[in-house]
């Protein structure tokens, strides 16, 4: 069956839709320069179910749920739902933790990095250089035979588990709504101030994310893959989609008067360039070793890939760690343990890379 979204026009359309959708979600209530942030929204969701107690970032985000359910629906329709697992699950779990902690030192995932640049945040340009360099390091290991091994087919029932978990989170959100402005309604947590209190209407967020999940599954959209393919193959197919995402948000920010060029006074961002660079270098390196950026891992989990689901569980744990142990940055400065977390994560990434080279 012909897959339009795998074509050059299809990947560009995917990037444009994600960019327009992200801008619309910002306009309707999501935080500035954070229409869609996979790691931040994972962090908010962990707070929503009580895995951390940072009251300003607690809300079960329907966007990440929509990614999985949309990808799941697309994979079923295209007969691409092929559950698999077994490729170094514990290592993928650790890479998810490293991604979560390091991204929250930067204050955003690769998608938010692009959204921040499109809003004029030059701190995110520093992060972009780090992210690209981290992926470049990963590709050097690819050329020397790095691999986490081969995933094996598993039962379809096992592939249904993670989408069902996401559906469970959605049901929690729907049937346990915020009551009387309280932080805790007896089942889940809701921020009353800060980024977690800022969100677009549930059904709109879920609907946009569901469509993103469908088209991203069909197009194989991935920020890490965009740079990996350039470094390894000089191929710009995936990068054209990423650039389209940037261009859509950049133009819409200009039209709406939301573009503000500079380093200072950017929404939910700090100006520590060294750690903006090194934290995103670690994110890029970890994403390369895991085989996909955080967004791509959510889409793959909807296809039944339990290796990606294991990475996402690590991402949940990592984002909770980031706030429980003083790793996450604030808009004013990096966290008290940010430096240790980034350097230790980078060390672990190198250890994983060197110990999984399969040929001389």
TrEMBL record:
The chain crosses the membrane at residues 12-29, 90-108, 114-137, 158-176, 196-216, 237-257, 277-299, 311-332, 338-357. Pfam families: Sulf_transp. Keywords: Membrane, Transmembrane, Transmembrane helix. It comes from the Bacteria. InterPro entries: Seleno_YedE (IPR026366), Sulf_transp_TsuA/YedE (IPR007272). The keyword Cell inner membrane does not apply. This is YedE-related selenium metabolism membrane protein.
């Amino acid at each position: 069956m012909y897959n339009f979204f795998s074509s050059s026009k299809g990947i560009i359309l995917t990037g444009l839709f994600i960019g327009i959708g992200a801008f619309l979600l910002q306009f309707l209530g999501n935080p500035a320069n954070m229409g869609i942030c996979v790691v931040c929204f994972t962090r908010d969701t962990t707070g929503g179910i009580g895995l951390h107690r940072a009251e300003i970032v607690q809300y079960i985000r329907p966007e990440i749920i929509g990614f999985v359910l949309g990808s799941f629906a697309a994979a079923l329709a295209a007969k691409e739902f092929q559950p698999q697992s077994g490729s170094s699950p514990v290592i993928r779990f650790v890479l998810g933790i490293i991604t979560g902690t390091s991204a929250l030192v930067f204050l955003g995932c690769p998608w938010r990095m692009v959204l921040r640049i499109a809003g004029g945040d030059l701190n995110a340009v520093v992060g972009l250089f780090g992210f690209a360099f981290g992926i470049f390091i990963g590709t050097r290991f690819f050329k020397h035979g790095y691999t986490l091994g081969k995933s094996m087919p598993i039962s379809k029932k096992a592939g249904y588990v993670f989408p069902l978990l996401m559906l469970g989170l959605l049901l929690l959100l729907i049937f346990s709504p915020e009551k009387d402005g309280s932080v805790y309604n007896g089942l889940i947590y809701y921020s009353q101030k800060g980024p977690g209190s800022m969100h677009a209407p549930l059904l709109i967020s879920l609907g946009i994310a569901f469509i993103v999940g469908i088209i991203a599954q069909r197009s194989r959209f991935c920020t890490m893959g965009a740079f990996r393919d350039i470094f390894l193959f000089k191929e710009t197919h995936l990068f054209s989609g990423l650039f389209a995402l940037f261009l859509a948000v950049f133009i819409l920010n200009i039209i709406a008067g939301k573009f503000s060029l500079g380093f200072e006074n950017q929404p939910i961002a700090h100006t520590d360039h060294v750690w903006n660079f090194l934290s995103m270098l670690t994110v890029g390196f970890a994403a390369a070793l895991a085989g996909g950026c955080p967004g791509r891992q959510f889409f793959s989990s909807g296809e039944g890939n339990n290796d990606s689901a294991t990475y996402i569980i690590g991402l949940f744990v990592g984002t909770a760690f980031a706030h429980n142990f003083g790793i996450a940055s604030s808009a004013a400065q990096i966290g008290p343990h940010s430096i240790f977390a980034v350097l230790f994560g980078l060390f672990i990434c190198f250890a994983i890379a060197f110990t999984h080279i399969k040929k001389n």
